[in-house]
Design goal:
alpha/beta; four-stranded parallel β-sheet
Length: 366
């Protein structure tokens, strides 16, 4: 396993990764350009647009996985994790990842979980409109009405500062990755987040000594084969509360009990309220006994869950874990990382509860 290069520092180029999405789409109808066409075009545009020399120096990190982000799978998430891990092991610290907006918040939150404890700097961005103007047919030029160029330059400048951690940069703002969610399907200000991230944002190290960085890398490489193997089988399910008879949800949960231990997101009303029934309570108990991790989240975009209402607090007596203030993408990302990283339901559950305690969002069992 390679050791970090000793000469890497903030004067080195930022590693730019292109993974597809609206950002690189072109034509009528819009379709992604191939990397062979888009990357040289983007590189030339960066040179032309940066006549004042304000942008940091960049280098291109070769990426073979370019697809619509709505098609991403856990194995694809591991592809980007491995790509970044190998570059980090070679001594690179600063990265900008361009991806599609459909799962941008999910991928960003996953990378935040996976690289916790390191001093890597990753900025994830994308765009709601393509970088290139499809009305111009004789050459490739930047669309003045697109948000792509501003998002990219903002992300590059943020990465240039080199602050450790994973951030999402969009529409002139940036946030810790695990606080971000998409709130609009068309508007340029499509994402929002907050700064009260707690774990894992506060687990990043400003600068790791070489020995500690090597220890961190060794730990990652020790489990990389197991993680890649588990990614092919891992499953995370979402059960969405609706004003139905409770039999609907209990039947949905019962159908999952025969599956291998997985992650289950229980999307409750308001502060995590879930309609009670004896059948649903029994199914939650059985889910726990079968090794599933059931996490309660709120359908509301802000505020998270609490045990203030009896309509929601009952579920925690049946081993449901509160998602706290975590967004739905962040809960998915944390579940996915724990299912990949740890080989037993007990260890996964213990690690989740430890993380939430650090974030100050745990709900105590009554």
């Amino acid at each position: 396993m390679p050791s970090p290069a000793m000469t890497k520092n903030l004067s080195d180029p930022i590693q730019l990764i292109y993974a597809g999405g609206t950002f690189g789409s072109y034509g009528r109808p819009l379709a992604p350009l191939s990397a062979e066409i888009f990357l040289p075009t983007l590189q030339q545009l960066l040179v032309e647009q940066d006549s004042s020399g304000n942008l940091p120096q960049i280098s291109w990190l070769d990426n073979t996985l370019i697809k619509d982000s709505s098609q991403l799978t856990p194995s694809d998430f591991i592809h980007f994790y491995t790509l970044l891990l190998n570059a980090y092991a070679q001594g690179d610290r600063r990265f900008v990842l361009i991806t599609g907006t459909d799962t941008l918040s999910y991928l960003g939150a996953f990378l935040a979980e996976a690289f916790a404890g390191s001093d890597i700097c990753i900025v994830v961005t994308g765009s709601m409109r393509p970088l290139l103007d499809s009305e111009v047919l004789h050459n490739y030029s930047v669309d003045a009405n697109s948000d792509a160029w501003d998002n990219l330059t903002d992300a590059l400048k943020l990465a240039a500062a080199g602050e450790s951690g994973v951030k999402i940069c969009f529409s002139g703002e940036s946030w810790p990755a695990q606080t971000v969610q998409k709130i609009h399907s068309h508007d340029l200000m499509a994402f929002t987040g907050h700064s009260r991230a707690a774990y894992p944002a506060n687990s990043y190290i400003r600068t790791l000594p070489d020995t500690r960085r090597q220890h961190w890398l060794d730990d990652q490489y020790d489990i990389i084969d197991a993680i890649q193997s588990r990614a092919e089988q891992v499953r995370i399910h979402a059960l969405y509360c609706l004003p139905n008879d409770t039999e609907v949800m209990s039947n949905q949960l019962q159908a999952l009990l025969s599956q291998p231990p997985s992650g289950i997101m229980l999307l409750g009303f308001g502060a995590g309220n879930v309609p009670y029934s004896d059948a649903l309570a029994a199914a939650l108990q059985l889910a726990y006994e079968h090794g599933h991790m059931v996490i309660c989240a709120s359908q509301s975009p802000f505020g998270g869950v609490s045990d203030s209402y009896a309509a929601g607090s009952w579920q925690y007596d049946y081993h449901v874990i509160a998602g706290g203030r975590l967004t739905i993408p962040a809960i998915y990302a944390r579940l996915l990382w724990l299912l990949l990283r740890y080989d037993s339901p007990a260890r996964r559950r213990q690690r989740w509860l430890n993380n939430v305690t650090q974030a100050g969002t745990t709900i105590k069992k009554r």
